[in-house]
Amino acid sequence: MSIEVRVPTLGESVTEATVATWFKKPGDAVAVDEMLCELETDKVTVEVPSPAAGVMGEIVAAEGETVGVDALLATIAAGEGAAPAPVAAPAPAAAAAPAASGGSVDVMVPTLGESVTEATVSTWFKQVGDSVAQDEMLCELETDKVSVEVPAPAAGVLAEIVAPEGATVEASAKLAVISGAAAGSVAAPAAAAATPAAAASTGKDIANAPSAEKAMAEAGLSADQVTGTGRDGRIMKEDVARAATTAAAPAPAAAAPAPAQAPRAPVAAQDAAREERVRMTRLRQTIAKRLKDAQNTAAILTTFNEVDMTEVMGLRNEYKDLFQKKHGVKLGFMSFFTKACCHALKEVPEVNAEIDGTDIVYKNFVHMGVAAGTPQGLVVPVIRDADSMSFADIEKAIAEKGKRARDGKLSMAEMQGGTFTISNGGVYGSLMSSPILNPPQSGILGMHKIQDRPMVINGEIKIRPMMYLALSYDHRIVDGKGAVTFLVRVKEALEDPRRLLMDL
What we know:
Elements: E1 2-6, E2 16-22, E3 29-30, E4 35-40, E5 45-49, E6 54-59, E7 66-68, E8 72-78, H1 90-100, E9 104-108, E10 118-124, E11 131-132, E12 137-142, E13 147-151, E14 156-161, E15 168-170, E16 174-179, H2 187-202, H3 210-219, H4 237-248, H5 269-272, H6 282-297, E17 300-308, H7 310-327, H8 334-347, E18 354-356, E19 359-361, E20 368-370, E21 372-374, E22 377-379, E23 382-383, H9 391-406, E24 420-424, E25 443-447, E26 451-457, E27 460-474, H10 480-495, H11 498-502
Parallel strand pairs: 20-24, 24-25
Antiparallel strand pairs: 1-8, 2-4, 2-7, 3-6, 4-5, 6-8, 9-16, 10-12, 10-15, 11-14, 12-13, 14-16, 17-27, 18-19, 20-23, 21-22, 25-27, 26-27
Helix pairs in contact: 1-2, 3-4, 8-9, 8-10
Region (Disordered): 247-274
Domain Lipoyl-binding: 2-77, 104-179
Cofactor: (R)-lipoate
């Protein structure tokens, strides 16, 4: 019987991958859950295990090909010449013995995302002794950015919780043990342990990821200058980026010890009894650290202006019903501000740039970050290529990202790569503020409350809906002239939206 090997789910918002390496050839014997190939996506590397034991048949997608989710990768002739493991060693055989009689399965920390190395166990949904079904949620982990649910790798009984609630665990750390699992469920560790041994015994050269080879050529690095972290020491794209950063960085001077945080002042006994001490979530700790790092790194300066919202409000009131009927989404103010910012960023590109060492990196695109307050804290989902989107596309993207942010379902990829940010404190009633940069970005626009104020228009005093605008920028890269010009262009586009249509 022929079994198909297909591309697994690659993660939210990831629709395709590149076949980086095949570890097996047609005719090779494979064990269940033995790694067959490695796929490379924009963010992570995914290993594809064998769904059954047998003999490797046809390889449909060769190395270097781009494949979509659920695409056919290869076929396996099940049961024909199947071997229990690629390396017949006493240790794997001994490990497999208890599995045959219903052994135990380790519950490990899943992949947490690029650059995320640890998480905190926030909640266990099961207790020791509880029965669990395969893929049933066991616990929830909290990282710097997102919450990750950990499913049961097999059915059985939760025998031991290794990492209790509140414990900090590293990627691939052991969380718990499930006993009474089926034999097929525990074959993976044995096969995985045997594969590196086979590679080591043959001494076969490991091919680096194609994107890593390209990155090394561009950076002028050789393979011996890069430490590979991929399978069997393969060099991945992120390894090259790390090595390039290390090579470019100057030799660090003797670091001064970080100043210790001042101890908390004594509290009166009658006050202490009425206090409540709550541990900061990892997200809140990360927000605090990043905001303080931004203040310590960038030369943050804020310039202000005010905008008459009469034209935008009139246009919105005139077309909001027709807009919603046609596009299925409400017409808000954020699409106007996003369009106005994209328009201004074309004229003042340094506000959309970032500093990388001694270089300035100009972005010829706009990935707009939209700050959103959630019960867990502040997050900034990114709307990619906002400069090429219509009003309706922007409103739909903002609504969808906002809902996912409130539900705590944003992925790491959805909060990375922003080039400029808009923060709307006006929804909370803020009249004026100085927003803090979101590193490594060089600019952030602060929106505020719309308030009727008397204004002099053509020598007459009239009541107009006014909003204060604030642009915080990194003075290391953006001069005062550029910052003021940017804010004036935003003001002009909002006070006369026809300028957006005419590209003026």
